[in-house]
Structures are given as C-alpha cells and as structure tokens.
Amino acid sequence: MKEKILEIKKSAEEEIKNVSSLEELNNFRVKYAGKSGLLTEVMRGMRDVPKEERPALGALVNEVRTFVEGEIESLEKKLSLEKLNEKLKGEKIDITEPSKNSERGIFHPIQRTFNKLLDACVAMGFEVVTGPEVELDKYNFELLNVPKDHPARDMQDTFYVTDDIVLRTQTSSVQVRTMENRKPPIKIVSPGKTYRSDSDATHSPVFHQLEGLVVDKDISLLDLKNILTDLLQILFGKETKIRFRPSYFPFTEPSVEVDISCPNCKGEGCYLCKKTGWMELLGAGIVNPKVLENCNIDPKIYSGFAFGFGVDRLTMVMDKIPHMRMLFENDMRFLKQVK
Amino acid sequence: MKISLNWLNDFVDLKEISKKENVSSKQELANVLADRLTGVGFEVEEILDCSKHLKNVVVGKILKIEKHKDAERLFVCKVNIGNRDVQIITSATNVFEGALVPVALDGADLANGVKIKTSKIRGELSEGMFCSGEELGISEGFYEGASVNGILIFKDDFGPGAKVEDVLLLDDVVLDVSITPNRPDAMSVVGIAREICAIYRTKILKQDLSYKTTKKSVGNFVSVDDRAFDLCPRYMASAVENVKIERSPLFIRARLFCCDVHPINNIVDITNYVLFEYGQPMHAFDASLLEGKKIVVRRAEAGEEISCLNGNTYKLSNSNLVIADAKKPVVIAGVIGGLNSCINDGTKTVIFESACFERSSIRRTSRAFGVRTDSSARFEKGVDTASQEVGMKRALSLISKLGCGEIAEGIVDERKEEAREREVVVSKNKIDSILGVSVNQKDVKEILESLGIGCKIEGDTLILNVPAFRLDIENDNDVAEEVIRMYGYDIYDNCQKGERKTSETIGKYDPVLKLQREIKGLLIDHGFYEINSYSLVPLNAHEKLGLVNLSEEVVKVKNPFSDELGALRVSLCHNLLTNINYNFNRNNKEIKIYEAGRTFHAKSNPISELPVEKDVLAFASTCSSDDFFTFKGIVENIVSKYDVSFSLKYSSASFLHPGISADLFAGEKLVARFGKINPVVAKNYDVPENIFYGEIFCNEILTLPEKKFEVKKISKFPAVERDLALVVDEAVTVGELENLIRQCSGKYLEELCTFDIYRSKQLEGKKSIAFRIKLISDEKTLSEEDISKIINKILKRAEENFGAKLR
Predict the structure, then answer these.
(1) Contact residues on chain B for A118, CB-CB shorter than 8 A
(2) Please, what sign has the CA dihedral across residues A141, A146, A147, A150?
(3) Minimal CA–CA distance to A131: which of A190, A51, A66?
(4) Which residue has the higher pLDDT, B357 or A2?
(5) What is the mean pLDDT of residues B500-529?
(6) Which of A167, B316, B350, B741 counts the most CB atoms within 10 A of its CB?
C-alpha cells in the first residue's frame, strides 16, 4: 500500500513535468486529485488496510495529496499567466496609427512675439494699455508734435476716415491718452494694430507695433539704454548688445534708432544682418517736452522716454520668416510649421 | 537728396578730408562720408557712381573707314585713342573720318548692360565698340547728340585717348542722403557741406557771389506787391536783360545730370542749380510776358485758371497762393510755373524770383492739385527767410560768370520782417540730465560753434546764437541732440549700467488681452490655428455676410488703396471665410482657425465721432469631426467660470444657419454666437457649406462676475443611479426635459446627464432620449421608495407635459 502511494507520488512528479497546458493540467487533476482519481481510490482501499497502519498511511496519502494539489495550484497560476500573456499578445495594436484629437493649434507668430514682448515688459513693471485703432487726428498727430500740414506727416502715409479721424499710424496715440489721464510715474506699453497707406514688399497697410513710454523724474537716454538692454536681453539672450544711432521722430528729442547685435550670428556678420553684425530694430528717444506739455505734464519736473517696435519685422527676425506677406496670408502650410 | 562729391568740393576741402581719413579714391571717400553722415543723423541710402558705365570708354578719333570684306553692312574703322590706334568694326552709318566718338574698350560695362570684349567679327578684329548716348546712359539734355539714332559724335574738341568720364565731367560719386523733416536746411549741397565741416571741425569754403550790374535799375523792369505776407513773408526779384537762351556750360549740366535733374537751358538750369546748391527754390519769368511789369503776390480769386508747365490747367481758389502780373496768375506760388510767362527761346529779359513761402500753404496746394516739384518739395519742408538773398546773389553771380546777360542794378526785396539770428538759452545741467552722460563744456562749445551756432557760457547757462536756417533749435532737448549726435552715440556703448532711476511700478496686463490669451489657450488645445488678417476689408464685405442692416455702421476709409481695402470690418466672419477660401484653393482642406481682433461700428452716419470698437475672438472649422455641439462645448467651456445663468436662442446672425446656430445670452447681453455657416453666405465666399463658426464678444464677457465657490461637504451616504429613456416627439427638446427632471428631483439630484439620443423607424418619427440621473442625500441612504417616488413623478409629469413614454 505504501509502495503504491509512493508510486503515485512518483508518477505524479514525473507526469506534471510534461503538463504544458491548462487542459492537460485539468486531466492531471482529474487523474490524481479528482473525485475518482488515484488518490481517492487509494483512500477507498484504506478499508482493507489493518487498523493500526491506517493513520500513518492516511497521513502519507494526505501528504501526497497536498503535494499534488500544491503542484497543480502553482502550475495553474503559471499556465494561466502564460495563457493571459498569449491572449494579450494577440490583442496587440498598431501603436503608430494616428492619435485621436491630439493636434494642438498655435498662436500666430506675430502673437507669439507679442506674448514674449508683453510678458517681458510686465515682468519689468510695465502696464499694458490699449486704445482705439480709429483715432482722432489730435491723438495720433497733433498732441505728438505733428500739427496739420507738418512735413513730418510725410513720414507716415495716413488713412483718413474724416478730416479729423484717422486709422492710427502708430500706437503712440495710446501714450498720449494715458498721459492725459494719469500722473507720473507712468510706465506703460501699448501693443496693437496700426495702419499706413504705404504698402510694398516690406510694408503692409496693416501692421503691428509695440510702443513703450516711461515718464518720471530725471529720465535720461542712459535709462532708455538700460531698460532696452534688459528687455532685448530677455528676448534675444544675455549677450545681446545695443547701440544708438541719431534719428528723428517729432515726438522725441533727441531721437535714436536702436540696433541690436545680430541675434543670429552674435555680431559676427551673416546674411540676416547683411554682414554688419547689427540689426536695426526700433526707434526711441527722450519724449519731446512739447509733447509732455501738450498732455499737461510739466516738463520742468518730469521727463520721459519712449520706444517703438515694429512687431512684424521683429517676428521675421526672431522666426527667420523670409517674406512679410507670409505673416498675413495665413496659408495652413505656413501656420503648421509654427510650433 | 542727391549730393555730388564734385559739387561738395566747392564748399569743403575734400582733399584735406581724404588725407585725414587716409583714403585715396572718390569711391572710398564716399563710403567714409556716408558712414560719418549716417553717424550724425543723415542716413546715406545709396552711393551712386556716375561713371560706373563709362569705365574703359575713351575718346577716339576715326582715322579711316573701310567696308568690311565679308559683310555688306559693316565697316572697319581705324581709330586713334591717344597713344595707339585700334580697329573697331561698326555698322553705324553716322560716323565719318575725323569724327570724335566714344569708344568702349575691352572690359567696359555699358549702361544698357552690354559688356565689351575684343573679338573677331566676320574674320576682322574689333577691339571695342563705338557708343551711342543711350549706351553711355546720358540724355540729350546733358549732351547734344546723345539721342541720335547712331553713334554719339562729340561736338567738343576732346583729345583722343581721354577718358569719357573725365571729358564729360561725370567722374563723380553721388550720395543719396535721407534728410529728416526737422532738417530742411540740410536739403542742399551747402547744407550737407555745413554738416561735414562740423564733423571735421573745419571751415566751410566761402564762394564768390559777386556780379557786375548795369546802370539801369531793377525798378525799370519789375515792381513787387506782396499782399499776403502771412503766406509769403519775403519776395525778392531781380532783372537780367539781353539774355541769350542757350545750353548751360558742361559743368552745370553735368552736376544737374548727376543729381537726376534734366538740363534745359542756361536760365532754367541756373534756377535748378541754386535750388540744389543753396536749397532756395528760384523761378524765372520772361519779363515781356508780365503785364504791367508787375508781380503781385496774392491769394487766387475764385474762378481763375492757370495752364502750367506740366501741360495741365488748374482751377484756382482762394486757398491757393499765386504770383500774378497786373492781370492774371502766372505761377502757382512755390509749386509750378505757368506757360503764360515761362522762359522760351525768344526770351530777352528775365525776371528772377527768390521767395519764401509758408510751408503748410504750399503743402496743401501741392496735395490738392497733385503736383509735386523740386520747388514744392523744398518749400513744404520749410524755407527760412534768410536764404532768399544768398540764393538770388548766387543766381546773379552765375549769370555774370557765364556771361549770359546784363544784370540790372538792385534787387527788389519785399518782406514782413528781417531774418535774424535767434537767441536760445539752455542749461548745461539739463542737457547732461537728458543725456544721462556728461559731455564737457569745451566739447559742447566746440560742437555748437562748428555747427554755426554761437555759444556763450555763463556758469550753467549756455547763451546760443542760432542762425536763421536752424529753425529746429528751440530748447534744451534740441541742443542736447546736437551735442550728442556730433559727440557720438558710441559714448553709450561703454556706459556701465547705473542704478535704476525709474520708480518702482507693478506690471499689469490689459484685461481684454488677458482674457483673449486665456481663450486662445483653450482653442489651441482644441487644435485651432491663429490667423492674422487685415481689419481693412472690401466695401461690400458686410453685404456678402448678409449684414445689409449694418450698412450704416460701416466705417469707410476716405483714401483707400482700393475698394478691396476700403472699409473696416464689422465682423471677423469675413476674414475667417476669406481665409478658408484661400486655403481651400491651395488644397488645404482641414482648417481650424481663430483670430482675435477688433470690429468697428460707426455711431452715426456720416461719421462725426470715433466709432465703437469691439474686441471679438472668432473661430471656425471645416473639419468633419466638428459640429454644432463641438462649438457649443467650446463656448460653454469659455463661459463656465462666470457666475451668470446663460440662455441659448437660435441665432439672429444673418451669416449663420437659422436652425443650426445659437446666440448665447447672459441676461440681456449677447456674449457669444456660433453655428453652421448659412449656405447663402458659404456660396458668397465660395467655401463648402459644412463650416462651423463661432464668435466671442470679449468686452461683454469681461463685465460678467466670476464664480466664487464655497466647498460643500461630500455626502457620506451612497448615491443611486437611474437610467431613464423617454420617447418623445421631435419637437420636444432635451433642454425642456432636463428642466423637468431637475424640478422633480429637487435637492436630491446630484448629476443629470443626457447620454443618448436615438432615432429609428420603429419609433415612428419620435426620438428616445436617455438620461442618467444620480440621486443622493446628505442625511440618509435613499430608500427604494424615495427613489421610486421621484422617478414616478418625473414619468408622470413628462407624460402630462410632453407626452413622453418610458421606452
């Protein structure tokens, strides 16, 4: 009897090694541990065994049964996992198929430039102020020291709505409105659309400006240089340098053109800066005392500086956009390159 | 403004400057001067080499002409070019033995683009080419014979072998200088010479302006009556008799030609010469054509007319200043001369005018008639009242020098007041505080004096004596600019960053831009691309959108480029549809775009005050995956943070489909609208019908209060979900049923979701709407009885009100 039990164990040990599927395992279970399996059969044969041997043999059968069931359980776990993995493999998808609703849109390049400029200006303590695009001649020109029939009007070909209402040629109009309504210190930037009737390959009748104004006590050209250096370094990198060249704007005196060291070649000279290492980027100057006076700010106490960017051109420089018109055509093939 | 170096050399010792700058050629000198001028505020836009197309072109004397052996129409010429003879093959028939002609030799690059190379023509060597005037780039006005159809035959006795650029006095380089509107005084050779002298701290070369006169007084020829001192503060006139009208000498023609002025005859050329040299416009009359020997400066009378040198006749009005004789206008003052008094081949006596006209009057008249001449261009920038005299004297000295007439004694000089130097007092400290750097007093004095501005220093005070031509210098800032531009802006290159002097301020965004940036972020997440278009649109854009009712609101531009950009937009829909059309035509079909910008609405018509400007953000999609409800979702998302109850109505916008569109109201305020584009409008823009469009009215949204929330306790009792499918007629809306469910479930409703709408034949024209109702209580676990009560109430009321049946 004992031999028989041990033989069962041995054959079970041998047999389970060859079990490789859940079906086979089930047959194995039926054969050994089932209701009419070998171990049950042995237990039934226990009746014929002398009484005193029964406990030891019973224990042995139970031991073998525990062993067999343990083997079955662990193998079943293993086989189920294998089967599941097999099934999961079969569920494999093509992960290169297109994604759903994942395409991200964009800010237009000009708006991206505005965002960068405005973020930098706000960080530097400027308040962003906007104003009307259709503007009184007074705010666009007259209070800015450009009376009617002044030759400086030739600098900006103007769209008129009536004799006294124009499409603003510069966002400086917002500066005048602000100065009229506030007391210094004033530190603002005014972004927005501007209009001029001189269109060609490099000028569009509708374009974008950002102008800045600081009015405070003892403001000098050096302060202008310092603030513009900070601003342009935020935009173009810490190593950016700026330089002044004399210029003329009716609302500033002295007036300067501001060049920056070419952000593309770092001043070495390249096609973008026409090998000069410098790029003309904005106009600026000390606010003409006549303009302060026009806005009821006492030029004996206060002085100020102003600066103005052409944002479209700045965008062309920053994003290396070859043609101005691309910024206004909005061809999806262009926009999709902006990421 | 074109400035010739040869001309400049009359006023500035350019040899000296070349030495200082260590340059040898004119071209190099031009480059240096361009840099220097740009450095002091006169940007040189271009440097033009007048002899560019005359290199390797020399004077040749034709010694012998023979027929080409192998070519019927060609001639073989033996030509002396000074130290040697060359052989030239030509087909020209106007040449003859003994003629002096321009010969382009190997390497010449002619004005018409032809490059000359020695070559064989039908077996005969040709070492160059005879040139026509056109090939040399010169005009008939500049040199007689330049326009003949054939070779230019020199009339002057030039020596064979001489360079043509030398004999024609075209060995010149011209600087094209951009003059800013504050510096009209620099619009002349003398003006630029003054700046150059200031740069190099040298003295301007004085010119001999003397001339001989006859004993006859100018009064015998002309009298002047200035009746409009406000528009003509000074008028000078002189007379020259026994004039012989002929070509000017070559040096005058060459200088004018290099500055793009067509030489005409000696008298007219002298007026132009003085204009370019001294910046004083001049005019010349034929004295015999001035009735009453009289010049009257006056406003034109209504109805007067004048036929002018450009061939046009102008109807004058009281706002136009004219120069008249005793009877009729003879010049539109400062703008253009009349045919009735102009210099002609028979002119014997000339009256010269040298006047000052007020700039804005000239500007208005020139604009009104659309006539722009060198004279009007100069006057409208502003001419001071001192330069008439020097201009007149220069003209008369040229007459004298050229011997082309006899000058009457005296000059008529009618003027309001004498032109004087002005005293301007400024503070050195103030100048330093404007500049932020200190320029020492000695340099300041030296700079100002080099500019012709007298400078006395008394402590901090500078007392300046400003010459009449510097109308722009009035205050500390003006003087600060003069100092720093001459001292050099490079002083700032090495300035260390000092302490920030400006007050501490807090940066802030504009609320509209902030809101727009937020909404843009949301649209970007939904895959929309921002576009950037013109706010100027075609005059009929609103009509294309069906917004005929807004005609009165449209703001029109008085002087547009074209009707295509003739008005300001009343809706962004035009821009978005135009862009969709543009992209469709380029086979870009999946388009999701948005734009933020203003729309413009006139308050009255005709416009008398500024229009209303609205900040709008519009978006559109052509993608089949987007529909009304995608757009509804986006809009709801945008307004979800506001504490307002919104209501939806079918949109009243003409460009939207009346049944597939909505206006979103917050109370009475229209805050957004969206929907499918109206098919009629789609057709107008030639775009497909299945486009969805939405617009958000930012200014309205900004008036809404934002939600403030208080956190409520989360119930510890379980929630119960019930799904309910109700079959109703098509006319019953989801919104009505949702409202009913909300009312019936009262405080127990936690969530209501419409999760399916089903239509099929079996439902016989009705629809089945499935709701998921989530109920919960703060106080207890809801019993089956509680729930049934609610559900039954819903079913009962839904049947009563809407005929709904449980499916």
Answers:
(1) 509, 513
(2) negative
(3) A190
(4) B357
(5) 91
(6) B350
A216 CA: distance to closest CA in chain B (Å): 6
Chain A partners within 8 Å of B634 (Cβ): none
Token pair of B407 as six digits: 């000058």
Q: What is the ipTM of this complex?
A: 0.86
Q: What was the pLDDT predicted at A53?
A: 84
Strands B294-299 and B223-226: parallel
pLDDT at B497 over 80: no
> Which of B:675-694 have CB within 8 Å of A?
none
Please tell me the total count of domains within chain A. 2
Q: What is the mean pLDDT of residues A245-250?
A: 93
Structural domain for A329, as ranges: 109-335
- Which chain A positions have a beta carbon within 8 Å of B568's beta carbon? 134, 167
The Cα–Cα gap between B154 and B168 comes to: 10
Pairwise pLDDT comparison (B421 vs A212), residue with the higher score: A212
B254: nearest Cα among B49, B7, B9: B7
In whole angstroms, give the CA distance from residue B273 to residue B743: 94
Contact assignment for B38 to A129 by CB distance below 8 Å: no
pLDDT in tens, B222-236: 999 999 999 999 999
Q: Are strands B350-356 and B282-286 parallel, antiparallel or unpaired?
A: antiparallel
Tell me the shortest Cα–Cα distance from A323 to chain B, in angstroms. Answer: 15
Give this prediction's pTM.
0.85
Establish if A135 touches chain B: CB-CB under 8 angstroms: yes
> Residues A187, A46: one domain?
no
| Per-residue pLDDT tens over the stretch B568-593 | 999 999 999 999 999 999 999 999 99
In one-letter notation, the amino acid at residue A178 is: T
Is B183 an interface residue toward A (CB < 8 Å)? yes
B322-367 pLDDT, tens per residue? 999 999 999 999 999 999 999 999 999 999 999 999 999 999 999 9
Taking contacts as CB-CB distances below 8 angstroms, the residues of chain B near A205 are 534, 536, 561, 565
In this complex, do A193 and B598 lie within 8 Å of one another by their Cβ atoms? yes
Is A101 inside a domain boundary? no
Rounded to 5°, the CA angle B284-B288-B294 comes to 75
- The tally of CA atoms less than 13 A away on the side-chain side of residue B412 is 26
Residue B624 near chain A (CB below 8 Å)? no
228-267 in chain A: CB under 8 A from chain B: 229, 241, 243-248, 250, 253-256
Tokens of B764: 């016989």
A199: pLDDT confidence band, cut at 50, 70 and 90?
low
Same domain, A117 and A61: no
**Average pLDDT for B148-154:** 93
Same domain, A299 and A214: yes
> What is the pLDDT, as a whole number, of residue B501?
64
At which residue do the structure tokens 């709008």 appear? B616
Other Cβ atoms within 10 Å of B23 Cβ, number? 16
A222–B436 C-beta distance less than 8 A: yes
Which phi-psi region, left, alpha or beta, contains residue A156 (left: φ > 0; alpha: ψ -120 to 50)? beta
Contact (CB<8Å) A197/B490: no
- Residue-wise pLDDT for A263-295, tens only, equals 888 888 888 788 888 988 899 999 999 999 999
Q: How far apart are CA A230 and CA B757, in angstroms?
A: 59
Could you tell me which residues are beta bridge partners of residue B568? Answer: B536
Measured between CB atoms, which of B359, B493, B533 is closest to A330? B533
> Is-contact B344 B280, C-beta < 8 A?
no
Nearest to B513 among A128, A133, A241 (CB): A128
Q: Do A254 and B434 touch (CB under 8 A)?
A: yes
Count Cβ atoms below 10 Å from residue B360 Cβ, excluding itself: 16
